[in-house]
Structure formats: C-alpha cells, structure tokens
C-alpha cells in the first residue's frame, strides 16, 4: 500500500528514482504510461503485464531493519502478562477507555481517546491528538506506526485532564494483542510500555485458526476469540485478544460487555469515529 502510494506520488527530490519499475506481484502495470516506459527499457510487457520470469529483480541491499524490529517484538512479548488483575478474579467494574488511530493525510496520525463509565450512554471524556506518522503500514508491524501516536495522545491526556478520576480498568485498542505472529501486537505494545491492562480488538484476523467454539488457536495455544455482536443480524465478527495484564477469557468478556448497536464495542466505535472526525 505504502509503496503504491509513493510510486503514484513520488516525494520531492525523487526525480531520478525509477518508480515506474515497480509493478504488482502479478506483473501488472498500474501507473500511467508505465508499460510503454518499461518497453523502451527492453522489459517484456504484454497486455499491460510484465513477464516476471526474465525481468524480476530482488537484489536490494538491506541491513534487515524488519529483522531488528522482529527481535524487539519478541522481547516485548516476553514481558506480556496474561494474568488478570487483581489476582485471578475479573477486574471490578470501572471506567473503560478505548483508543484508535486514523490517518487524515499522508504522514499524519490522529489518535483518539474515549472514556466511558459502566452502563453509560455517552462518553465521560474524549480527546483527539494529531502527530507525525513517518513509519509506513507494514503488516505485523502496526506497533511502530501507531505507538508514537498513542504516546503523543497520552502526553496530551496527562496535561489536559487536570484532576484525574478513577483510572480506567482497561483500555480497548484497535488492533491485535497476542493474536499476532510474534505475540506482540499494538495492544500488547501499548499495555507493556504504559503498564496498563489492554485488550486488542481487530476487524481482520491477522493469523491463527478459528475453532468451532469461536476460540482462536495459534501454534496450539488459545490466543483470542472470534465474536460477532448478537444484536446485529448477520454482522461481521471481531477478533479479540489480550494485550497485557488481562487473560483471554477476561479480554473477551470486557469487550463483549460493551456491545451495543455496532460491530465494535461502544467505546471503541466512538474512538474510531473521533479519530476520523477530530
């Protein structure tokens, strides 16, 4: 997605970067005049598609930046706690918070925070903060794109709230917790670094296998649940997993207790809207 966007709108100073040589994995040309330009360079193109058997290039020099990030995620996953707090009992009823990030323009993130009291119909507190978003979207590495936005949000939150009320019992995060190839999604990253209980709520399943009972297994371990709001007839499911300081069962309960009239739990649905509208 990021590569395609850059190729369509190259940044200033990229005049000499051969963005026209980037095609889809199928060989399909998608940029204006791309097929003709490739033909002038001797690249075999037929019906708008490159013959990749003789034209593919993969010898890019790299110091393996994603390998370093994977190592960081592995280390972070070791710090994740799946123990309910306090003790092994479900967390007592209290305020619940939700956070989400949207991207109103290239390179800009808008992180939103919504807080609601149990059984409340409206948020008790809302805040949206914009900050730079230099890291591109890379599947499995959402933490590095969104965590800086959440850090800016938390900093502003601490400065704006004045006298704090009861701390939220949990934070619902748009994204995955341990339902992640390295058990370290953005909900886990936020939970570990901020030392708060978090639950990941994703709209798409990144990995794992959904069992008949709705539990999601990854490498033989139950890491989450696939659940649809029963109030929505034929509604799409969401994928719930613990982020930090919450068990799988409690993560599912906390998220589904806030089902109202939408696919997402109510606080997260409101955070999603706030992140898009400011």
From TrEMBL:
It is found in: Cytoplasm. Its main location: cytoplasm. It is an enzyme of class 3 (hydrolase). It holds the Pfam family Endonuclease_5. The keyword Lyase does not apply. InterPro entries: Endonuclease-V (IPR007581). PANTHER family: ENDONUCLEASE V (PTHR28511). Keywords: Cytoplasm, Endonuclease, Hydrolase, Nuclease. The keyword Magnesium does not apply. It comes from Alienimonas chondri. Its EC number is 3.1.21.7. CDD domains: Endonuclease_V (cd06559). This is Endonuclease V. GO terms for molecular function: deoxyribonuclease V activity. It comes from the Bacteria.
